[in-house]
Amino acid sequence: MDFKNEVISLLAEICQDDVVKENPDIDLFDAGLLDSFGTVELLVQIEERFDILVPITEFDRDVWNTPNNIAIQLADMK
Amino acid sequence: MTPYGSFTFFIILAVLLAPTIILGLQGKRFHNYNMFVTVIALALIFSSSLYQAIALCLFTIWQVVLIKSYIAYRKKANRDHIFYLAVFLSILPLILSKVMPYFSTLNLIGFLGISYLTFKGTQLIMETRDGLIKSNPPLTRLLYFILFFPTISSGPIDRFRRFEKELKLEISAEQYKLLLYEGLNKIFLGFLYKYIIGFSINHFFISQLRFIAHSEFQNHLYYMYSYSLYLFFDFAGYSAFAIGVSYIMGIKSPENFNKPFLSRNIKDFWNRWHMSLSFWFRDYVYMRFVFWMTKKKWIKNRNLLSNLGYILLFLLMGVWHGLALQYIIYGAYHALLMVAYNYFERFNKKHKWWPQNKVTHVVAIIITFHVICFGFYIFSGQLFHKGA
């Protein structure tokens, strides 16, 4: 599985919704799939699984808003 | 002189910012001149009280020395207890200014804006710890960020990295024209909100309540709704002035309000009301607390952890407003609402009890509105001052 798909399936786990796989351009915050708590869980998992440390204030909701965008941001930080 | 408090202030501002506007419209850099304006404006704002002026200077030196030393330290090492110490020292002046009045009649530490400036210092320490601020920023830039006069008295609370990015940006004449237009628009919206609507609510309704209301209960009920509206128009008006002036100076200060009375629920409300403050608490208190607890695996129950985070956030926010009983209860009230909403959200996810459609959306806005107004009623202190 490539990196992007790994990120998206992690998001599907955290949001507990497969819609992120069907529509990877969905705005996670507008759709109510991700909130502050979910974001923290995501950041902890990103560190554990991919060994990428994303500081909390680096996670800007205007940029890290969709599954695709999150995957792009993470790929940049790898 | 109170910022945006009198006509004189606006006239002085217009004179001081005239060169800024001329430079901006020619597409020239103006930040050096704006720093000079900031010094003049601060002198005017704090001219009425020597104590406050001295307190502001001492506070600024304290924060700058602390931030610079921590950045220098962080390049070499990253110990936990040094970080906690640095955070504690950065909020120490604020703590003292809140506690001192209970012990002495003279408050030598407090000054206009200390509550807001503290957020700027503390975030710099935290972002340095996160490795987001690596190099020691030039002293003038750091001072300009902390003391940026349009937002000095009550925010909006800006973020250093955002502010710095905009400071480095080249603004063309065309772009500046748009900034100026938006800035002026916001300032006039501020006049409408603060000096026409807010003033009218207070002058024609709140101060006349004893003639309008027929009973004690009616008095409190009318007060609750009119005070809530007044608070919004007054503070949103002030924010519009602060943001508008920032725009004219080439800095897009963050927004503070986004139609808060149209919130669908309490969580939504905190994404719309006093946003720069609630986002600060979200990013630097709630999320950090949850992150830390999750990593250390001290609290495994997700709901308990989330609720504890909310309780911590809102009690802190309450105390931040002041140590008076009404603020602490206000914080506790919102903590309780967030916990209750958390339960409701989970219940609803499972049972689909509250459907999503236009009717429920409107009903949700109406319920939320009343719940929020009751919160402001607590905040106003009327509940605790009988016969006021």
TrEMBL record, chain A:
Q: Could you tell me where this protein is found in the cell?
A: Cytoplasm
UniProt cross-references to Pfam families, sorted A to Z: PP-binding
Which pathway features in its UniProt record?
Cell wall biogenesis; lipoteichoic acid biosynthesis
> From the Swiss-Prot or TrEMBL record, what is one GO molecular function term?
D-alanyl carrier activity
Residues modified as O-(pantetheine 4'-phosphoryl)serine: 36
Keyword vocabulary terms for this entry: Cell wall biogenesis/degradation, Cytoplasm, Ligase, Phosphopantetheine, Phosphoprotein
Question: According to its UniProt record, where is this protein mainly located?
Answer: cytoplasm
| NCBIfam families named in the record | dltC (TIGR01688), PRK05087.1 (NF003464)
Function in brief: Carrier protein involved in the D-alanylation of lipoteichoic acid (LTA). The loading of thioester-linked D-alanine onto DltC is catalyzed by D-alanine--D-alanyl carrier protein ligase DltA. The DltC-carried D-alanyl group is further transferred to cell membrane phosphatidylglycerol (PG) by forming an ester bond, probably catalyzed by DltD. D-alanylation of LTA plays an important role in modulating the properties of the cell wall in Gram-positive bacteria, influencing the net charge of the cell wall.
Q: Record's family? A: Belongs to the DltC family.
HAMAP family named in the record:
DltC (MF_00565)
Name it.
D-alanyl carrier protein
From TrEMBL, chain B:
User: What is the residue range of the signal peptide feature?
Assistant: none
- Please indicate if the UniProt record lists Transport as a keyword: no
Q: Which UniProt keywords apply?
A: Acyltransferase, Cell membrane, Membrane, Transferase, Transmembrane, Transmembrane helix
Asked if Membrane is a keyword of the record, the answer is yes
Q: Which Enzyme Commission number(s) are listed?
A: 2.3.1.-
* Localization per Swiss-Prot or TrEMBL: Cell membrane
Spell out where the chain crosses the membrane.
6-25, 80-96, 187-206, 227-249, 269-292, 304-321, 327-344, 359-379
| An individual GO BP term | lipoteichoic acid biosynthetic process
GO molecular-function term, one example from the UniProt record: acyltransferase activity
The protein's matches in InterPro entries, at most eight in alphabetical order, are given as: Ac/AlaTfrase_AlgI/DltB, DltB, MB_O-acyltransferase, MBOAT_fam
Q: In which pathway does it act?
A: Cell wall biogenesis; lipoteichoic acid biosynthesis
The way this protein sits in the membrane is described as: Multi-pass membrane protein
Q: What class of enzyme is it?
A: transferase
This entry carries the following GO cellular component terms, namely: plasma membrane
Return the NCBIfam families for the record. Answer: LTA_dltB
| Family note | Belongs to the membrane-bound acyltransferase family.
Primary role: O-acyltransferase that catalyzes D-alanylation of both teichoic acid and lipoteichoic acid (LTA). D-alanylation of LTA plays an important role in modulating the properties of the cell wall in Gram-positive bacteria, influencing the net charge of the cell wall. Catalyzes D-alanylation from DltC carrier protein.
Q: What is this protein called?
A: Teichoic acid D-alanyltransferase
